[in-house]
Design a protein that fits this description.
With 359 residues, the protein is an alpha/beta fold. The chain has helices at residues 22-26, 90-103, 109-117, 136-141, 158-166, 212-225, 248-259, 269-279, 298-315, 320-335; strands at 12-13, 125-130, 149-155, 178-184, 200-204, 229-242, 283-288, 291-293, 340-351. Helix 6 (212-225) packs parallel to helix 8 (269-279) and helix 7 (248-259) crosses helix 9 (298-315).
């Protein structure tokens, strides 16, 4: 029988079964499993009137828009206190995991492997996954890397840390052991000291929800520790839908404006991160990592559509009437297998100057 990880932050646990067990993890008997509503709100969180006529039409919490400037649509545990951080729904993170894995830029793996292979005097890799969510980055990356690996998972949300620990992979590409440790914390507190001894910093779908100050903090911490950073799946601000619709451009522009609320970088994140790392002397490579969604990804496409259009309407309420029609037609095409969507993202690899004399 598989052990379930309920360790406190900072506890080291044995590595657990790999990606396909993530579904099992979401079904673990957990007294805190009760997920209610986004910031206490009920009903349709898409921001589009009439677009969520049933439970099956509702946005999975975490996939949709926010309710106040600077907030993301999230859920809280039923017994969460007022000071507990909001959280993304594991259901949304699980739904997007396959598309994320298919999209990430494999071209960045070879230069990363070369850097990691040249690390001096290391018995194994120490990898910090920042904003780890349910741990999808580790499930994707660990099987691509040789050697023993110790993953340190960082997230503000202890609930998601639980899922990430339970579903972490057991072994790397060459069969070497993978272990995992959890740390609850905020990226704003990340320092070179916190990354001392790190071989790599990773993050997925994180940069675009950071401010410029937070990106600068991340770059400075990695540079100070002399470790590379692989930062994947940052939104690029471009979407292609086939067949096209005259409202596509307006929705895209409104969504991008929503992403920039309260100083968040949104589609400007990769450019800002590349500049920040370069200022610290890092060599930076950026590669595209688009979601390519067709009939086989209809569930993800439908949830993405509701959240995407909902955020646009939240940013520009005058779009509401036309957006209602637009979303209904798009969802119908999605259900019929007639809709294809490319959601553009970018992956960034920053090779910071090592501090230990490695090349």
């Amino acid at each position: 029988m598989r052990k379930t990880a309920t360790t406190p932050a900072g506890g080291t646990i044995p590595a657990q079964p790999g990606p396909r067990d993530a579904t099992d993890a979401a079904q673990l008997p957990d007294p805190q499993r009760g997920i209610v509503s986004a910031e206490g709100a009920e009903g349709d969180v898409s921001g589009v009137s009439g677009s969520a006529g049933s439970d099956t039409d509702a946005v999975i919490l975490g996939a949709g828009p926010s309710f106040r400037p600077g907030e993301r649509a999230t859920v809280r545990l039923r017994d969460a206190g007022p000071d507990d951080p909001p959280r993304y729904a594991p259901e949304w993170l699980e739904l997007r995991e396959g598309a994320d894995a298919a999209a990430r830029a494999h071209d960045l793996l070879d230069p990363l492997r070369i850097r990691l292979a040249n690390l001096p005097g290391r018995a194994g890799l120490v990898i910090h996954d920042v904003g780890c969510g349910t741990g999808s980055m580790g499930r994707w990356l660990a099987p691509h890397l040789d050697g023993a690996q110790h993953w340190i998972l960082h997230d503000r949300d202890p609930y998601l840390l639980h899922f990430a620990a339970v579903a972490s992979p057991r072994s790397g590409a060459d069969g070497s052991r993978v272990t995992v440790e959890t740390r609850r914390g905020d990226i704003g507190r990340l320092t070179p000291d916190a990354l001392k001894g790190a071989s790599l910093v990773t993050a997925s779908a994180l940069l675009d929800v950071l401010t410029r100050e937070e990106v600068d903090t991340l770059a400075a911490a990695c540079a100070g520790a002399g470790c590379p950073a692989l930062l994947t799946l940052s939104v690029a601000g471009r979407v292609e839908l086939t067949p096209s619709d005259p409202l596509d451009t307006e929705v895209t522009e409104a969504f991008n404006a929503h992403q920039r609320r309260s100083g968040m970088l949104g589609p400007d994140a990769v450019t800002a991160a590349a500049e920040a790392f370069a200022e610290h002397g890092a060599t930076v490579q950026v590669h595209p990592s688009p979601w390519r969604l067709g009939p086989g990804e209809s569930a993800l496409t439908a949830q993405w559509l509701r959240g995407w259009v909902g955020a646009a309407v939240e940013e520009r309420p005058e779009l509401r009437e036309r957006a209602d029609r637009y979303l209904r037609e798009r969802l119908a095409a999605c259900e019929a297998g007639e809709l294809h969507v490319v959601v553009h993202h970018s992956d960034l690899l920053a090779l910071c100057r090592p501090t230990g004399g490695a090349s």
